[in-house]
Design a protein that fits this description.
The complex is a heterodimer of chains A (about 325) and B (about 450).
Chain A: H1 3-13, H2 36-54, E1 67-72, H3 77-89, E2 93-98, H4 106-119, E3 124-129, H5 134-141, E4 145-151, H6 157-171, E5 178-182, H7 189-200, E6 204-208, E7 224-226, H8 229-232, E8 238-241, H9 257-264, H10 268-271, E9 279-281, H11 294-297, H12 304-324
Chain B: E1 12-22, E2 27-36, E3 39-44, E4 57-60, E5 65-68, E6 70-75, H1 88-97, E7 100-105, H2 116-129, E8 133-136, E9 138-139, H3 152-158, E10 163-164, H4 173-183, E11 190-192, E12 204-205, H5 208-213, E13 217-218, H6 221-237, E14 241-243, H7 249-260, E15 265-270, H8 271-275, H9 297-309, E16 314-316, H10 324-327, H11 344-355, H12 359-373, E17 389-399, E18 418-428, E19 431-435
Parallel strand pairs in B: 1-4, 1-5, 6-7, 7-8, 9-10, 10-11, 11-14, 12-13, 14-15, 15-16
Antiparallel strand pairs in B: 1-2, 2-3, 5-17, 17-18, 18-19
The chains are: A alpha/beta (about 325), B alpha/beta (about 450).
């Protein structure tokens, strides 16, 4: 190969069509299918966003003039505020819509709302819905980027990203860590997103839960399953607790909250089984005395409050990444 | 010139130069078929043409296959009560274009077809509006509530071809026992759905894919347990039983064992469970939400083996029209069901082209077997049988396009599907009710 040919090849790869995009998605529906490079890109950017959030002047003009709609079919004060703050810190106009759901007409509302909102020309739509696949359905109908803030028991990608950022900041890495996810796996979108992300980034995932709360075939995702905290916790770097929904405690899946706490509650004795520097996480809101003991939730190993802070940073990074894919005013 | 099935059949028709396949006589030969006054008169090589009536039309079949028309044992129609989904007329048109010459209409209508007047209504409407034979199945229990029996004798006399609670599984074993026992006196066929409503309360096949998608699963046992229960009850009562749509490999074994024990049972499978599996759902595509659910590939293979070995008798379309309002929803909230009359034959032919099921066996499952099980005179080309036939090209390639569908609802699981083999003519009582120019 002559020198000139080599340089011309180089020039070609610098042409816009060949330029590596930092992030290649239009929507963030789930972690499944994301490339490790996408995840690293988002986490790196979120790390920078943490610094921005800690300054006194927090607002950035990055996305000013754009509109973000928060569409929540399920109540969630903390997730909704987190998205709202993230949007505002990037300079967006944020509109919150809490849709009252009647049990039967939900779906109709979803499609009708999609069409209506689309007509208002938003740039970003954040959606939470109790049906798996709802975010995907909306993404197909909307002309803007959609961020899934939780769809049924399917995925909650920003939660997994904020968990990953929390872990990375605490441990310096994700690869090679052993992470225990404990509790209601079967109904948990947080668990699914976390499993996909941790697997993609090279961590070992253990699931610890009563058999009724472990969904069939989950081990095909590359996890190992334990039915005793005492078996699953030794050697863990991260202990991730899940919220147990109150309606699951009444006999259908487990007999009672007190029996659950007796065998699966995170107590000081159980935390001591994990590595001495293990961190304790919880996506909130917590049921103190059901899945986690208060002294642990508030203890030195707990990073639960930091998770909330990382939530804003991660959501800022996601919004920016999705929006920079749709540049309007590049001139 | 749009004639319904009610009008008088043409006096004489001669179908020449056809490959005639009739599973009822194990016949696969080249020849002609003479039809007189809606019935098969004669089959043979180079039938003489000098004695034909002057109105007789001669139909050149160009060596393509002439076979008994399809008999679809499980079809949901919206009339009465859900005419926006499908009417008897539109279902008849869809059926004709799919080669279905007789179909059994499920009683899940509003009102439920559970008394003589409604059976009469369906029969009359079908006679006037449809060019193919639409036969009502009567509800097994009043209002499909699973509590009290309907009037089996009167309903059968009025024209009901079997008794079924349609989509609903009879939950109460005592009710099922009584129905199986009482129906014996009228030689009635009990056609049953087998999906336990509590165990089968999910929305797709249980397993890894349901877990990954965060959807509640329907375990295979939700079908196997009611089926095994029913086999016990058939053994106890010696009733006549047909499991309308099965989907798991264990169900095939259960049926096979029952047949080995000389029970009077038969089993059907929806063509979707033969041609598709759970991975076709992709990203929450609700047109693939059907009941029984699309199962694992191993189950699909087992169903095909069931067809091959004879454990499974009947292939049905499980045609279940749903409109946009019930389908354009998040997966868990969307209704079950997909239309199938127009894709039944082409989808079933995949078993011939890719799984090596002989055409003879396939046509038996689509025509002869359901006709026999339902005690219908069709499904055969023997002398004197109704001249209900299809003419098809087993190899013609085509693509299913949504806007070409005749069914009033468009919820097909085969949109854009590439098929090999197509219906060219559908003949009911000697009259060509559907013809495709090629």
């Amino acid at each position: 190969m002559t020198k000139s040919a080599h340089s011309s090849l180089n020039d070609e790869t610098k042409a816009p069509a060949f330029r590596e995009k930092p992030f290649s998605l239009d929507h963030l529906i789930g972690i499944e299918g994301l490339q490790p490079s996408d995840i690293t890109f988002l986490l790196d950017r979120a790390d920078e966003m943490v610094g921005i959030s800690r300054q006194i002047e927090k607002r950035r003009p990055t996305l000013s003039g754009r509109t973000l709609i928060n569409l929540f079919f399920e109540n969630s004060t903390r997730t909704q505020s987190s998205f709202e703050i993230a949007g505002k810190r990037l300079g967006m106009d944020v509109i919150n819509m809490a849709v009252q759901t009647s049990s039967v007409k939900k779906g109709e509302t979803l499609m009708d709302t999609a069409v209506t909102l689309n007509a208002m020309q938003p740039d970003l739509l954040v959606v939470r819905h109790n049906a798996a696949g709802a975010a995907e359905l909306l993404a197909q109908k909307m002309g803007c980027s959609v961020i899934n803030a939780g769809d049924g028991a399917h995925e909650h990608p920003t939660q997994a990203l904020l968990d990953a950022l929390t872990i990375r900041r605490s441990k310096g890495r994700i690869e090679g860590l052993t992470v225990a996810i404990c509790g209601d796996i079967v109904h948990s979108r947080v668990a699914r997103s976390n499993i996909h992300l941790l697997n993609a980034m090279g961590a070992q995932v253990r699931l610890i839960a009563p058999s009724t709360l472990i969904p069939g075939g989950i081990e095909e995702l590359g996890t190992s399953t334990f039915h005793k905290m005492e078996d699953g916790l030794p050697g863990c770097d991260v202990v991730m607790m899940l919220r147990l929904q109150s309606e699951r405690m009444s006999g259908a899946f487990i007999p009672s909250a007190r029996e659950y706490y007796r065998y699966f509650g995170l107590t000081a004795e159980r935390v001591a089984l994990a590595k001495s520097d293990a961190i304790v996480m919880h996506p909130g809101p917590m049921n103190r005395g059901v899945e986690i003991a208060s002294p642990i939730a508030d203890g030195v190993q707990s990073v639960i409050v930091e998770q909330v802070e990382m939530g804003v940073a991660v959501r800022m990074a996601v919004m920016e990444a999705l929006q920079l894919e749709n540049p309007v005013d590049m001139a | 010139m749009k004639k319904s099935i009610k009008s008088k059949p043409p006096r004489q028709r001669l179908f020449v130069n056809a490959r005639i396949i009739d599973p009822s006589q194990n016949m696969d030969q080249h020849g002609d078929v003479l039809v007189t006054r809606g019935r098969i008169e004669k089959i043979g090589k180079d039938l003489p043409r000098d004695n034909l009536h002057k109105s007789c039309k001669i139909i050149e079949c160009r060596g393509l296959i002439l076979a008994p028309g399809l008999v679809d044992s499980r079809v949901f129609i919206g009339e009465p009560g859900g005419e926006h989904r499908e009417t008897i007329k539109t279902a008849g048109k869809a059926a004709a274009s799919g080669g279905v010459t007789s179909l059994v209409m499920m009683p899940d209508t509003d009102p439920v077809i559970d008394d003589v007047a409604l059976v009469e209504f369906v029969r009359q409407t079908a006679l006037e509006k449809s060019k193919i034979r639409i036969l009502p199945a009567a509800a097994l229990s009043r209002g499909l509530r699973g509590e009290e029996m309907t009037e089996f004798g009167l309903l059968k006399d009025a024209g009901a071809v079997c008794f079924t609670d349609g989509r609903k599984t009879v939950e109460n074993p005592q009710m099922m026992r009584r129905a199986l026992t009482y129906s014996r006196d009228f030689d009635g066929l009990i056609m049953a759905a087998t999906r336990d409503s509590s165990l089968g309360g999910g929305v797709m096949n249980a397993g890894f894919n349901a877990t990954r998608m965060g959807l509640p699963g329907i375990p295979r046992e939700a079908e196997i347990i009611p089926l095994e229960r029913d086999m016990r009850l058939v053994g106890m009562t010696r009733g006549k039983y047909h499991a309308s749509c099965l989907s798991t490999s264990d169900s095939v074994d259960v049926i096979k064992r029952a047949k080995d024990n000389k029970l009077n049972v038969s089993a059907g499978v929806a063509v979707a469970n033969l041609a598709l599996n759970e991975t076709d759902i992709g990203s929450y595509r609700t047109f693939f939400k059907v009941s029984p659910p699309l199962r694992h590939e191993d189950d699909r293979q087992a169903m095909i083996e069931g067809i091959r070995t004879g454990a499974i008798d009947i292939i049905c379309s499980n045609h279940d029209p749903q409109d946009v309002d019930t389908k354009r929803l998040p997966f868990a909230e969307a209704a079950d069901g997909a239309i199938g009359l127009e894709s039944l034959f082409a989808a079933a032919l995949r078993l011939h082209h890719t799984d090596g099921i002989p055409l003879m066996r396939l046509l038996e499952c689509l025509s002869t077997a359901p006709a026999r099980r339902l005690s219908l005179p069709c499904g055969t080309l023997t002398q004197g049988a109704p001249a209900d036939m299809i003419l098809f090209d087993p190899d013609m390639p085509w693509i299913m396009e949504e806007d070409r569908l005749r069914s009033r609802s468009k919820n097909t699981a085969f949109e854009g599907a590439r098929f090999q083999g197509r219906i060219l003519k559908t003949i009911v009582a000697g009259r060509t009710v559907f013809s495709r120019d090629v």
